Every structure is written in C-alpha cells, then in structure tokens.
Amino acid sequence: MYPIAATEQLSPNVTRLVVEAPRIAQIRQPGQFVIVRLGPGAERIPLTIADTDPEAGTITLIIQSVGKSTTDLVALRPGEAITDVAGPLGSATELIETGHAVCVGGGVGTAVILPIAQELARRGVRVTSIIGGRSREWVILEPELAASSDVIACTDDGSYGRPGFVTQALEDVLAAGDVDAVYAVGPVPMMKAVSELTRGFAVPTTVSLNAIMVDGTGMCGGCRVTVGGKTHYACVDGPEFDGHQVDFAELADRLTTYRSFEQAALAKAEACKIPALAVKADKATVDKATVEPTR
Fold first, then answer.
1. Tens of pLDDT, residues 17-34
2. Domain of residue 114, CATH code
3. How far is the C-alpha of 287 from the C-alpha of 249, rounded, in Å?
4. What whole-number distance in Å separates Cα of residue 193 and Cα of residue 178?
5. Residue 249 in 3-state DSSP?
6. Between the CA of residue 272 and those of 35, 68, 74, 131, 290, what are the distances in Å?
7. 85 & 108 share domain
8. Helix (H) or strand (E) holding 9
9. Pairwise CA distance, residues 109 & 40, whole Å
10. Is the pLDDT assigned to residue 271 strictly greater than 80?
11. Cα(40)–Cα(193) distance, rounded to whole angstroms?
12. What is the value of pTM for the model shown?
C-alpha cells in the first residue's frame, strides 16, 4: 500500500497527489513514470513522476481527471492509500549539459516538464519555461518552475501573462537564435505545432508520448507509434522521442481508440453514484461497462 501524504487542487480538473513511495523516490530520473492501480480490479494508469522528495520518501503525481479511474484517484485524501505503484519505468530524458534549453508545457503537460527543467538547471543549463492554459485558472506549476527557470506564462484568452498560444511565445524565443534544445509536452496538436516550428530553426526537439500509454510494459501494444518510419512502443522505447520524427497524424488517431469506452464508464459511474472501489467481488451482479477500466 502507498499512503497519500497530501493533496492539492491545481486547476479545475488537475490535482497534485503526494504519495509515500520511498524506493521510487530514491532512484527516479526525469522523464520516468509509474504505473498506479487504485485497488483490485482497477485500471493500470501510467503517470509521470512530477517531483520527488527522497528524504521524505515521497513522489508527486499530477493527475488530470478525464475518466472514471482518474476521477476515483484524485478523490483520495491524506491517510487513504493506493494499492499498487510500480516503477520507475521508461527511459530517462536525454538532457543537454550546457547552453540554453526551452521547456514548453501545455495544460497538464506542464507537470512533465517540471522535473526536466529542474534537472537542466541543476546541470547549469539556462532554462526558459513556456507554459500555457485556456485562462488563468488552467495555468499550473508556475512558482515551481520559476525556482529553476525563466517562466513565460500564456493564456488563450489573455486573462493572465502573455495572450496567445505557447507556440507564439516559443517563436519569439527561437528568433533570438541561442536555443540549443526544446522539450515539449502537452496535447498532441501542441506538440506537433512545436515540432514543426523548431524544425524550421533546426533546433533538436523532444516530445513526450506518455498520454498514449496503457499498461506500461509493452505487452498490450496499445502505445504503438511510428517514429522515423519505424514502429516503437511509447512505454518501453520512450516515452520521449524526437519530435521531428514522430508521425503525429497516426498518434492523434490512436488516442481516440478507447474514448467511447471511457465516456460510457464515467457516465454510468456518475449515474449510479458508485464510489471509488465500490465494485463487489461478485462481478456477475455488476454491469461490465460500470467497471470497465478507464482513465
């Protein structure tokens, strides 16, 4: 069991969970993730480790509630526990050692760039973080990123920071001509736009495909992606890849595979008011769609 040490609401549908996981906290590296299972019969959810405190023995997970499983997960309170947390898994981020790096985060993707920015700064790299959201309430982790980088916050509606998209801010930074690497994490359209932009400036760009992962071991095949014309599995070969080589059209299509199942399970759970972990052992009496693993 992995007890919840603290929780915090970061935006309307994004929650920070601090989880007691001493071994993982000691060895995790930026870019790696864990597989979380709330309880028996629950879905296996891949989540990037956003931060760690080795002395306290905790890891930080930042979770966007989009389906039944993630909604159940963020409902946990301090003192409650997650049954299984496996990791760290995946390859660590390949980071530059000198120069100027730009970390671009869109929405909950900002949680993934946080450890990258922190480690780059620790190495002595100059870091600029560009983060964005639809409006002020959707911009997350700005204070944490400001501790290790220069932050440019953007909002689509202009309610906070710089008006407009993160790509517009990135283009201005790239135009200065001193960027050595870009790390971008967020919605697929954003990562595609960033990669197309940086291609024109010949700046190496790393993107994270963690959103497509399912079981985290490469056995299900659900996270197949084409990178540089070859098939890879995001969970075991990544989750980070060269953004200039990713087939974003295929990636966007694959992300819709389980959407109808996720929507059906969440709708039934809400209609029946089924609390987290309320599924009984006698599955013959439970509607399968209600307990179908979904995020």
1. 999 999 999 999 999 999
2. 3.40.50.80
3. 35
4. 20
5. helix
6. 27, 12, 19, 38, 9
7. no
8. strand 2-11
9. 28
10. no
11. 40
12. 0.82
For residue 191, is it left (φ>0), alpha (ψ between -120 and 50) or beta? alpha
Q: pLDDT-derived band of residue 264, with 50, 70 and 90 as boundaries?
A: low
Q: Rounded to the nearest 5 degrees, what angle is found at the Cα of 86, between the Cα atoms of 85 and 90?
A: 130
* Structural domain span for residue 114: 100-208
Element (H, E) at 252: helix 248-254
Q: Are 232 and 254 in contact (CB under 8 A)?
A: no
Tell me which of 33, 59, 89 is where a domain ends: 89
Given a cut of 90, whether residue 221 has pLDDT beyond it is no
CB of 234 closer than 8 Å to CB of 210: yes
Q: 129 lies in a domain?
A: yes
Do 159 and 84 have their domain in common? no
Residue 253: in which H helix or E strand, if any?
helix 248-254
